[in-house]
Design goal:
The chain is an alpha+beta fold. Helix content is 38%, strand content 19%.
């Protein structure tokens, strides 16, 4: 008599525990768990911070959908596996049985639901990707310039800030560019992340749904390793309660920057206001001090006095005389300050170094 492996006890157990109907029922249970888990996501969860943009709930929904489906199948398969290990363990007087070679209902049960899920993930995910990647025509545009190791924001009136300010409830498009290496624009509470690539413009948009309280802010991070001080590359995101407050803040940006504001915007990512070194030397007490520098023209180390002429030259021609105070500092200062900074801004930051950081 020929033994049919599909008729054994093992095969019957498989058919009892895994059929198309039960697989679909399990899928429905996973969806129910997802719906229950999504409740209260506005205030954050163990996995994700609070949702503070129009994009965030949709991103979280697909995240939790995938998460709970995977968790359901992990638990289901693990329990069945443990039950099989116990039921078909080696016992005295019980002979091993041949494993089944084919079972149509079982193969449909483990193939059809995953295929349906994969198609759903792709279709839903692609639709959301297209929507998130396509800013509305009436979005308020802000330019973001990333460089080692900070972000700068330029508003339509020409005003500049190291903080990102946006109005609540209105779409905002941020046009991204990098001056040096690849960076990444990432606001966790908005669920947006976009690479910032040198030599090209990229865009990201969002609608903030929660205003920040006075003295509070959301964080913007660089999420792409970009050099020694990558961990310091972050900025604050301020959401104004209404458009009138936001417009008043933007209007105030049009006034000339103070020396401290110029320092914070262009210098603070590499230089501290103390004597301690960061990427470059600390600048407290630099004005009028004796400095050892490497003269790029002669290749020799010389001593100079850090007067106004030296400070101006260091800003506009940063590689001409490199500091050798305590250690060798790399020549990574932005060479475009000569065209990027106004004369009044250079004068203001020199006065700040002379009068405030003495």
């Amino acid at each position: 008599m020929i033994h049919d492996p599909t008729q054994g006890a093992f095969a019957r157990a498989l058919r009892r525990t895994a059929t198309p109907g039960r697989a679909l029922a399990g899928l429905a249970l996973g969806v129910l768990l997802l719906v229950l888990a999504g409740c209260g996501a506005k205030t954050g969860s163990l996995h994700l911070p609070p949702e503070d943009s129009s994009v965030a709930p949709r991103v979280d929904w697909i995240y939790y959908f995938v998460y709970w489906i995977c968790l359901f199948y992990l638990g289901h398969i693990t329990l069945v596996m443990l039950w099989f290990l116990w039921k078909y363990r080696r016992r005295p007087g019980v002979e091993p049985q041949a494993s089944p070679s084919h079972n149509t209902p079982l193969e449909i049960a483990w193939s059809l639901p995953p295929c349906v899920l994969v198609v759903f993930f792709f279709v839903y995910g692609f639709q959301e990707y297209v929507d998130i990647s396509t800013p509305p025509a009436d979005a308020y545009k802000i330019q973001c310039i990333a460089k080692q190791w900070d972000f700068r924001f330029v508003y339509p009136n020409g005003g500049k800030s190291k903080e990102l300010h946006v109005p609540k409830g209105e779409p905002v498009e941020v046009v991204l560019e990098s001056e040096d290496v690849i960076h990444s624009f990432y606001i966790p509470r908005f669920r947006i992340k976009q690479d910032v690539v040198p030599g090209r413009f990229t865009e990201v948009w969002f609608t903030a749904t929660t205003a920040t309280k006075p003295g509070e802010h959301f964080w913007l991070f660089c999420a792409e390793y970009c050099g020694d001080s990558h961990s310091f590359m972050r900025s604050k995101v301020i959401v104004h309660e209404n458009r009138a407050d936001f417009d008043a803040w933007v209007k105030a940006l049009a006034k000339p920057l103070s020396g401290e504001e110029v320092f914070q915007m262009y210098c603070a990512s590499c230089h501290l206001k103390t004597e301690a070194a960061l990427v470059g030397p600390g600048l407290k007490g630099v004005y009028g001090s004796k400095r050892k520098v490497l003269d790029a023209e002669t290749g020799r180390e010389i001593e100079i006095t850090a007067d106004e002429d030296y400070l101006r030259e260091s800003i506009l021609e940063p590689g001409k005389k490199l500091s050798r105070m305590g250690r060798e500092f790399p020549n990574v200062m932005d060479p475009s300050f000569a065209t990027k900074l106004k004369k009044s801004e250079v004068d203001a930051v020199i006065r700040y170094l002379r009068d405030e950081l003495k």
